[in-house]
Amino acid sequence: MKKKALFNWSSGKDSALTLHKIQQENEYEIVTLLTSVNSQFQRISMHGVRIELLEKQAESIGLPLTKMMIPEMPTMEIYDEVMKNTLLAFQEKGVEYSIFGDIFLEDLRKYREDKLALANFKGVFPLWKKDTKALIHEFLELGFKTIIVCVNEKYLGKEFVGRIIDANFINDLPDNVDPCGENGEFHTFTFDGPIFTKPIAFEIGEIVYRKYEPTKSSNSDVCKTDDSPNQYGFWYCDLL
Q: Residues 90, 201: contact at Cβ < 8 Å?
């Protein structure tokens, strides 16, 4: 009997590769895709992708979608409370596992596992400690296609946002940028690949710049920052 699990779906490449691996192993029954959504803007938290495109992904994947509505720039207390209530609701349906696409951020994994334990959930991390350079090449070799929807100006310039990840993109990355963007350097929207029954159609809209106050957080939906008091900015590519 398969283990019932939530799948934490960001809409990006690591989620897509993780879901593909989970489907191939056939050990878990994915009860739902779970995505944090900014309730004010109706977009995926941090990625900035419109909710309509998220829904098209879920439809093409063929799995139910649960949108966890989060206010703009939530406190950790608010985020934790919403997450706990979401987990407890699924616990009543016999779900015991929560799957993530995290790769090597130890503090983030500990944060997740500590919070999951409060609801008697166990975390599953199929990509954990895998080589990120090997992962991005595996992703492309499997036929996945993904576009950069957000970059952190601390690591990358405006010219990177809106690009499709391919060999040229990987070669253009500075040495201090992880090829999978695991440190929050960039975020993606995956629109084609073996988990989809059909590609997700979209058009590239305007590129916008936003700044946020630094947030000390282990939550992946709020980008990590260093101890500098300076503001940090992000370039977003709107997908229509």
A: no
SS3 letters across 171-226: HHCCCCCCCCCCCCCEEEEEEECCCCCCCCCCCEEEEEEEEECCCCCCCCCCCCCC
CA dihedral 144, 147, 148, 149 (to 10 degrees): -120
pTM of the full structure: 0.92
Query: For residues 27 and 22, what is the distance between their CA atoms, to the nearest angstrom?
Result: 7
Report yes or no: 210 and 233 within 8 Å, Cβ to Cβ: yes
Question: Each residue of 101-128: pLDDT tens digit?
Answer: 999 999 999 999 999 999 999 999 999 9
- Determine the 3-state secondary structure of 114 from DSSP: helix
Provide φ and ψ at 30, rounded to 5°. Answer: -80, 110
What are the tens digits of pLDDT across the range 161-186? Answer: 999 999 999 999 999 999 999 999 99
